[in-house]
Design goal:
The protein is of the alpha+beta class. 34% of the residues lie in helices and 21% in strands. The protein has helices spanning 15-56, 178-184, 220-253, 257-262; strands at residues 82-89, 95-101, 104-114, 120-129, 146-155, 190-197. Helix 1 (15-56) packs antiparallel against helix 3 (220-253). It is elongated, with a radius of gyration of 33 Å. This is SURF1-like protein.
């Protein structure tokens, strides 16, 4: 009696399935990395919000000493610190920087404040509408003599993707670039930062201070969840496609019953 042995054909992973698995792995890794990056951004944003809230609502302090200014290269160490400073406005060196706020389009009024020690600090006195850009249209706001200003320290703006380039020759300003303003207006010993004045009313009602933006969008958690969900969807889709590819090969390669009877 002859015993015929039957062997089960070995399953082999099709090259297309290997490609799908490779792409799935790469995409999943990228999506997980993006999700994790957003988690880190979430922690950074929460720390920023807490730091700004603490500084902006603290009791005002004096400005850093002038000998400390050259070392102030990291705005995170001082920005939004509430300070108080005394001096006299140099209205002849005022600069109007174009902006759009909740009050509509207009200008920030930036005026150097000359201090008794010979240094100067630029003060963002607040917002004026477009028809009040010229100082002659708001003479009551041109305060003379010694004034005391309370506000928040802000880092200089050097331009960027969303800010147009300043055109000092035509008196068109789009960024609060303190170094450039000091150079154009010949202001010596100028602080490398500026101060956003608080909401204390100015004579005549203009400029309108206290417009510093203290709220920051924080969508990082939803972004992280989105990236992680997409990573899970890619894994499921990759598994489904790979399973079907391998399944179709097995069905094609398996011998049919007609072939067995013919043999």
């Amino acid at each position: 009696m002859t015993i015929q042995s039957e062997t089960t054909p070995r399953r082999r992973i099709r090259p297309a399935a290997i490609g799908v698995m490779l792409i799935t792995t790469i995409l999943t890794g990228c999506l997980l990395a993006l999700g994790t990056w957003q988690v880190h951004r979430l922690a950074w944003k929460r720390d920023l919000v807490a730091r700004v809230e603490e500084r902006a609502h603290a009791a005002p302090v004096g400005l850093p000493a002038p000998n400390e200014w050259p070392a102030m290269t990291d705005p995170s160490h001082y920005e939004y610190r509430r300070v108080k400073v005394t001096g006299s406005y140099r209205h002849q060196d005022e600069v109007q920087v174009y902006t759009v706020t909740d009050l509509g389009p207009g200008y920030w009024v930036l005026t150097p404040l000359q201090r008794a020690d010979g240094t100067a600090v630029v003060v963002n006195r607040g917002f004026v509408p477009t028809d009040k850009r010229e100082p002659s249209t708001r003479p009551q706001g041109e305060v003379e003599g010694s004034v005391e200003i309370t506000g928040l320290m802000r880092a200089t703006e050097t331009g960027g993707l969303f800010l147009r380039t300043n055109d000092p020759e035509n008196n068109r300003w789009y960024s609060r670039n303190i170094a450039q303003i000091a150079d154009v207006k010949k202001i010596e010993n100028t602080a490398p930062f500026y101060i956003d004045a608080d909401a204390t009313p100015n004579p005549g009602g203009l400029p309108i201070g206290g417009k510093t933006m203290l709220t920051f969008p924080n969508n990082h958690l939803s972004y992280a969840i989105t990236w992680y969900i997409l990573a899970g969807m890619v894994v499921v889709a990759g598994w489904y496609v790979t399973r079907n590819l391998n399944g179709s090969k097995t069905a094609t390669d398996a011998p049919s019953s007609d072939d067995d009877e013919g043999a």
